[in-house]
């Protein structure tokens, strides 16, 4: 980004870009690097938005939304890995037809890495889905009290 203060229009554009990262729970440091904006600028917006969600209901809703977005991200990753696995399986078939042992072994290693990564993501997703959010814990405490 150029040095100096951006115009009001550019400030709004920067703010909306930073908000997209904030809503995805990307850290201020990573957001600053990705948007090529000063860390202090990002931190200022993050601090402002954090203070707006101090209200308990908004906070609990934010936690639930964050959890749902994380689960959706895991689902997208799983789908992508499944597609990649099918592509590799197709290439494995081609390598077998060609009789290329070296290529077959290389592709099998890639397939195993994909399957391993998919297993890790599914396991993490299961743990996240099974973890109660703060509102559920609060409700359970109120019931038990």
Task: Note down, in words, how this protein is organized.
With 145 residues, this protein is mainly alpha-helical. The protein folds into 2 domains: 45 residues; 78 residues. Helices cover 84% and strands 0% of the residues. Helix 1 crosses helix 2 and helix 2 packs across helix 3. The model has no long low-confidence stretch (mean pLDDT 87).
Topology, element by element:
Blueprint: H1 8-23, H2 28-35, H3 39-52, H4 56-98, H5 101-130, H6 134-144
Main beta sheet strand tally, sense and closure? none
Strand content: under 5%
Helical content (DSSP H or I, runs of 4+): over 70%
Q: How confident overall, as mean pLDDT?
A: 87
Helix-strand makeup class: mainly alpha
How many domains make up the 3D coordinates?
2
Q: Kindly state the number of beta strands.
A: 0
Can you write the helix and strand succession as a string? HHHHHH
The Rg value, from CA coordinates, equals: 22 Å
